[in-house]
Design a protein that fits this description.
Largest sheet: 2 strands, antiparallel
Shape: elongated
Structural class: mainly alpha
Number of strands: 2
Number of helices: 11
Strand order of the largest sheet: 1-2
Strand content: under 5%
Order of helices and strands: EEHHHHHHHHHHH
Distance between the termini: 50 Å
Radius of gyration: 20 Å
């Protein structure tokens, strides 16, 4: 059975691992973490209980446990709520729900931080929709340090202006998941097969 977090399972109110059924029996009246997430997803995305059960079974519990391991459950819930609100403003709740069901690790991802990163790098709303819809695993499994290094490396390769880098990333968001040496190889491959990218001039 999947594990999640309960703020009362060990002394001092610190988060502890629990098995959902066992936690209910040990702590009558205390809702497990999954119940809080279910309520949040229902309120923000109108996900029915059956959808949440499928999400949880496909890895949502692991993602949520990992997010809670980094801090109190309330903090993880607030971060998730902020991320869902940010994505909903960009994509709409229905599309966010579809992304979440396709990529359960998004439950534990710093979604709001990713939106802030893309905003700070001056990606347009249309480009952000293209990036996130086309590559939700970027938010689910990527990290901001690697993404920032990827953008810097694109500049080093000759994609000197923001517009050129943005076109590359919007066309293939997985670039932001790659280390510099793999980006270099990929750009050369694109250029060799004339897929629209010139490794010296940008696009």
């Amino acid at each position: 059975m999947a594990t999640a977090r309960c703020a009362g399972c060990i002394p001092g109110g610190q988060p502890g691992l629990f098995r959902p059924g066992l936690c209910r029996s040990l702590h009558p009246g205390k809702a497990p973490a999954g119940a809080s997430v279910a309520q949040l997803l229902t309120e923000r995305l109108a996900l029915p209980p059956a959808s949440f059960d499928a999400l949880w079974a496909r890895g949502g519990a692991r993602a949520w446990a990992a997010a809670c391991a980094a801090g109190p459950r309330g903090g993880a819930l607030r971060e998730l709520a902020a991320g869902l609100d940010s994505l909903s403003a960009l994509l709409g709740p229905a599309d966010v729900a579809r992304l979440l069901l396709a990529q359960p690790p998004l439950l534990g991802a710093p979604i709001a931080s990713w939106r802030g990163f893309l905003d700070a790098c001056e990606f347009s709303a249309a480009q952000q929709r293209e990036i996130i819809s086309g590559c939700p695993e970027l938010l689910a499994t990527g990290d901001l340090v690697t993404a920032g290094a990827a953008l810097r490396h694109l500049a080093d390769l000759g994609f000197a202006d923001d517009a050129a880098r943005h076109r590359v990333v919007a066309w293939n968001p997985r670039v932001l998941l790659l280390p510099p040496d793999q980006i270099t190889d990929l750009i050369r491959l694109w250029s060799k097969f004339a897929v629209g990218v010139d490794e010296r001039a940008g696009m």
